[in-house]
Amino acid sequence: MTKTVNLDHVTIRFGSYTAVDNVDLSIAGGEFFSFLGPSGCGKTTLLRCISGFVEPTAGRVLIGGKDMRGIGPNKRPTALIFQNLALFPLMSVADNIAFPLEVRGVSKRDRRRRADQLLELIALAGQGDKKVQELSGGQRQRVAIARALAVEPDILLLDEPLSALDLKLRQHMRTELRAIQKQVGLTFIYITHDQGEALIMSDRVAVMSAGVIEQIDVPAAIYDRPRTSFVASFVGETNALHGKVGAQEDDVVALDLPSGRRVFGLAGGNRRYRPGDACTIFIRPEQLKLATAESFNRLPASVIDIEFEGSTRHIRLEAEEAQLRLTLMNEGTPASLAPGDRLELSFDPEIASVLPSGPMAKA
Amino acid sequence: MGKLFAGVAHRHGLGVAIFIGSAMTLWLFVLVVLPQIAMVTQSFRFNLPPAEQGGPADVWTLSNYAYFIFGNGDGLNSVDLWVLARTIGVALFVTIIDLCICYPIAFILAHSAKGMSARLIVLGLIVPFWVNEILRAFAFRILFGTTGMINETGMALGLWDVPFDFIRANVALYAGLAYAYILLMIFPIYNAVEALDHNQIEAARDMGASWLQVHRRVVLPFAKGGLASGATMVFMLTAGALAAPQILGGPSSLWFTQLVYQWFNDALNWPRGSAYAIILLVVCMALVLLGMRVFKVPFGAIGK
Question: Where would you find this protein in the cell (chain B) (predicted)?
Fold first, then answer.
């Protein structure tokens, strides 16, 4: 069974500090939904609020349409996976997994059967009698998931569960988590500061900053169509050029850069700008191209240095009083660029976002 | 031992190592081991006037231990046996009471109380122990006396009409003993519980465990070493207490240490006093070891 989660204008304050500011969204049953944001943006507080450890100062949390106010974490149909997993070190793997059943008074035999079932699901069959410490990081991760699934919750809440793993394992677990979610069909609510995790696994992503939701969208739209400067700069690498709006026609905005050169991009979030508005145009490094004879939307630049990374080359450039990054695929031809070279770049206006200059994420 | 000494000498210098080594040796050997050996030896001798010491009558004997069990030979020495049983029983009871009182305090101190309130709790626990042990015992006597505060309050509230003799009923004794070593119970438990990752408690709660289940399955097993350490200290010290039973004990109830005291100071029979002291020590240690076996506490956990 899956249930929707509705956050109805939720605000959480600690004293005078507002950790979560008027968050209003709804998560569909069976969805893999991520909250993405830097540390301290309020995402963990929000998760603790859904799980019942924190009550909202204002607003409501509804799970399956039912108001959760006053209902403790042990009575909610949610299971929380902690950042450090919080497995019980003195219990065996099977006892850990069966703990939620034990506290509900399920018989020893049924507990064992369910634990074996779950061990099978997480590909640890036959390892139930081991101590938690005898397992590897990835295995513990899976045990924590199995324990959370033991009582068949409607919603699984995950608080950066992969952050303690090394890079290789983390990449592997992303795929695995997604596969488990597809298999059990539950609603997953996932907290992370790692955009890679959020983009790869999620059906939808909510980007948070300073307690506020900046954008909720499918991963591709978060990356390709950021609605705020924060989202554009926090998610993925980007180039930012500041300027003033010259004109707008439909979604296409003409932006005048400090040099007086005019470039074109799409108005982010379907905004309407007035001439003279201070705006920033964001272009992804892999979407900048070396200009050819017929390119328009040109940008003269000079090469600062070149980093070779196997499949790609990262080229640092200077243009319009800013530093830009250009990523070129390694297509087998030897690099003809050298520091100091002058060249012209161009980009497709369709993939460049013009957004109001505002707070940007620190890289 | 040599390795340990070399290690300390390497890390902190030879002077420090020599100081620590000699202080430990003095402490353990001169103040603990030697007197105990003297007590054990003495307990197997007759109580002879100085003139006969070293003479033909000064031989090894089990008579002091035999006296504890058989008295002067006609049947069992039921009085002394009963005093020992009662002392041990009450010490166990006091230990359990202290466990019940201190575990919640230690848990709150470690996991709920923050900043100012935590410091106030610690102060409230420690400051009363600046007062001398005997004065504290007398304070309990005043509190529990027939015209004491508890009786006065109880009668003023109409809870009972005739003053209740808390001293004769030994309530004052149990309370005084329970209070006397409360810190030695709280701090080991606090140390153990504090090391527990708070997420484990929240995880257990999240998975539907009641508070009772959280403590039974997560916190208590984790804190077992601390509980054992605190319980051992409280039990040993309670069984060996002298001031509180002297002052707070009812007129008809003796504490085993009072028997030891009487043999030494009133009867001037040091060998028999030594034997009684050894009996108390051995019985207490046997009980502690038994308890550790029953609750599956490894010996090393006591040192935590």
Answer: Cell membrane
